[in-house]
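Sample pair:
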Amino acid sequence: MTRVAGVLGRFFTGVGMLLRGFGFWARRPGIMLLGLIPAAIVFAVIVGALVALGFGMPTLTDWLTPFADGWDDPWPGILRAAVGAILFAAAIVLAAVTFTALTLAVGDPFYERIWHAVELEVGGSVPDHGLGFWRSVRDSLKLIGLGLVAAIAVALSGFVPVVGAVLAPTLGVILSGRLLAMELSSRAFEARGIAGSARRAILRGHRAQLLGFGVATQLCFMIPFGAVFAMPAAVAGSTLLARSALDAAAAAASAGAAVTTPGPTPPAVRP
């Protein structure tokens, strides 16, 4: 029970990181407003794609379920409505990940200013530059690929008997939230030359915080126009989360070095 309470506490600590990110709207409104520009552009494109999918969903579900044409009413309609809901849930997962990936790539100069301002406020060693445009594009393409895999997993989970209707949206929020948190927090690590397995090793002890931050961010993205206003806060909050993990890793390394360093040799005792 204590362990569960500890995990939940760390989960809500991650949620709190996003709330602290929103606090930057009060402290640094100028750079946060800049972060709205790329988010608004990409948001309009993504919403347009989802609206088009919604209008085309009846045709798509009819095409996917030709075997139901001979069924008695109302079963064809029930099946096709369920298939449409599952496909749309998967599309929302992919849309959230694609929104983040494209927004970070398009708005790299704006989000680098937010990241750098948060780093300076936290203090300590602060890198001069972030990832750079082409590195952001590469990471964005990778994130879209992972988002596609997550969307397929969500779609398949929706067909699980009895629990599929609940499992699909829940899994969608969890998977997309984790992907968002990993990508958003990567800037602070990669600016310090920490990538891949080294970054995952540092974050291993912060999985609950990472998930809490990601789920809260994904839920904000699902609110109408929430993605536009939450994106700058998510960049700020993810930087706070990454710095928390980096500072904890540095403290653990220092403590380990102190334990393994031999102390002074005691003076010899004369007879």
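The longest helix spans residues 226-260.
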